[in-house]
Model the fold of this input.
Amino acid sequence: MQRAPSLQWAAAARAIDLAMGERADDFARVSLGADYVARARRFAQSYAAQRGRQALALGAGRRAGGGDELVGHRPLRVGEDARDLDWELYARLERPFVRERRAEAGERWAIALDTSRSMGVGPPAKLQCAAEVAGALAVCGLRIGARVELLAFAAVADERVVFESCAREVDWMRCVRWLEARRAQGLVGMARLCAQQRVLAARRVFVVGDLFDCEPAQLLPLARRGRALCALAILAPAELTPPSSGDVLWSDPESDARLAVRLDGPLAERYRAALAARLARWSTTLARHGQSFHVASSAASFEDVVRAAL
Amino acid sequence: MFEALVFDSSYWLWALPLPALLAWWFSRAIGAAPQPTGAVDVWRSLAPEAPRAARRSWRWSARVLLTVGALTSALLALAGPRTTPRESPTSWRVVVDASPSMAWQDGGATARGERAIALARRVLAGVLEPGDDVQWQLVSAERVLERASEPDPRWWGAQTARLSLERPRWSAFDEPGVVWVTDRGEELLSRHAGVCASGEAKSEGVIASWPGSHLWGSGEAWTAQPASRAPRVALDVGYRSSAIGRASVAWARARGVDLVEARDPAEVELSIEFAPSTPLARRAAGAREGWRLEGSAAELGSGTPLDETWLADVQERSRLLVRAARGRVECALAVDHVIAGDSAAFVVSWAELLDRVLLPVQVTVPLDALLVRSMPVERAPQRPLDEQRSASQPLAHVFAACAAVLALFAAVVRR
Done:
């Protein structure tokens, strides 16, 4: 990344800031209280019930062989591979549905959580929303019998991966405590986390983060037949809709790159368009490979985000 | 009222620019307040960097300001601040000893009194501050005889010494803002007043005197010597035929005193003065010891602290008829006054009065003034406001507490 000349002073000032005692507590942290736990459990219960109704309504129970169990149908997504399209259901309902398959009991879910410094941007901090989403995804997976593994990078510049594995819903609180221990202080990109063997071994992968530090092509190794990939881009409200006037010094929390910008209406509009194009590129690339991509604001409720992802 | 702020260790104040320098360093222009975002690359692809002039000049961090405030308070605390009371101008009093030994010269050219006055001036020069004033007072016992803004050389001259006045009762003048001026100061213990003493040397002089002779003492031997001249008594010729005049003439003849016309009091040992007759003179009569003086009498003018009332009107006690002091007798009765009753007793009374108030021809001093030796003494007086000065409040603990509180806030504030 090319640095502007003034950033030399910015880097020096940053060093002095750190010398003055910028503490680890300055990094965004996660708080998952009793209210969240109750809401997540209720959501998981609702999700499991809905899956069961769908399976009964759409004739689930036919085994597809190959070790895959047909567990139901879901609407066809734009750009998705049509080989799983259920033509009989289409003829009956005149709406496209694809067969949803599940491996035998013990399917592995991997939820990769982005804990880089940019996840501390807010308010509300993206890491808080991402952790709530990851926790809800975990309890939903555990409710339907999957084995869930949460993964993240350990510390500031450490590529060591920390994870928490659960196979029973009663162990879900361990996932909650693991999530609460995360801090937005990492400097390593999500692409490296998604290249971990634990992620590659999962049948269903959720990538939860802002996805600013990677490109869609870097996650395509996850998008192979037999593995479902869902990328969730959690962005801060200020990133989705920046102010349209005034002077601002944008600062990258990870690279400390800074850019002084004089905002106005047209520039803000161009930003929104550029961001939308970037997000559309994600959506199109993943959909072309039969995978899903969703964008959410860190101010949104985790139920809405997880509902869209599942 | 406490107004001034002074610093006991003011050199610490030289470091005060340091917190300001730190505040400037940590708050200098970098740009507008940084806002974190993960989309810097997106912005960079859209907009060039804003010109430096468009950026906000300074960013002030609460942590920087609190730290600078704590440093400044700490430096002020190290400088030892203290409030001082505002002092109003001081009125100094210098009490000058009126006793005869102050006129003594101890074989030198300057009298003890003059040397003591010089010491007092030096002491005052060390304590006087702008706006202060000084009053010099000639004191005998507890009586203030004269007041002046500058000491009168007559105070330690022969004229005053011949009056044989007492030493001041020093304990009555022991206050802050007072300086004692005397010749013997070693034995004086003052709590508040300053002491300026010329010191004494053994010498010789007249220790007693009467008309025609005196007693000369040198410490080991005492010698009766003839006086250099007879005492002079000033009595106007026109009054010598009155009853008082005739009694005075008889006394003078008996004592060997020369009667002269009225002249400068410095040249005579006694002045017998009569108040000038006026149309306002009224009949008056005074009586004592079996006799009575009657006649028309004028009003005597204001007297001095040394005066005593010898004869007052029997009807109106406040109306003085004869007033006396050492070296002076004043009569309010006109020349036509008469004696009634025991005239012989009047002559005896009158002679006793004149004996008592007649000054010696030469200055006489008490015997101990010739025998005692003492060193000069110079002690500065206490200022009247010194109690308030000692109550000036130190403020270092206040500034130190401020520094601690600001540092605590700086430690917990995030930005």
